[in-house]
Amino acid sequence: MDKTNKRSTGSRYEDMAADYLIAKGYTILDRNFHDRTGEIDIIALSREALVFVEVKYRSSAKAGDPLEAVDARKIQQIRRTALKYMHFKGYNPESTSIRFDCIGITGSGINHVENAF
Asked: Alpha-carbon distance 108 to 66, whole Å?
């Protein structure tokens, strides 16, 4: 699969994740925020927190659980990028409640893990 097809597939499942979050009452603030430290798929507000969401998709169980792809390196990258986002948007990390969620999407549905790390 070439890079364009991967991005298109990723966008489709990120759209699905965003719709899921909206239905749960979240407000989507940004999508695909990136800088040189990394990228965050979805940034949303829930009642109590600024939420940074990583979205992973797998076409079948044979490919493994999509959430297994969020390893220690990816977690560090997301955390660094979240701090950059907060600085860029004027959020105070000391006084802003934040959360890191993961959404795994497979043929059998959506698995949303709040406070994943």
From this structure: 12
Q: Model-level pTM? A: 0.89
For tokens 């966008």, what's the residue?
A: 11
Q: How many CB atoms lie within 10 A of CB 63?
A: 12
Residue 109, classified by CB atoms within 10 Å of its CB into exposed (0-12), middle (13-18) or buried (19+), is: exposed
Per-residue pLDDT of the chain (117 residues; tens, 9 = 90+): 555 655 556 688 999 999 999 999 999 999 999 999 999 999 999 988 999 999 999 886 666 788 888 999 999 999 999 999 999 999 999 999 999 999 999 988 999 999 999
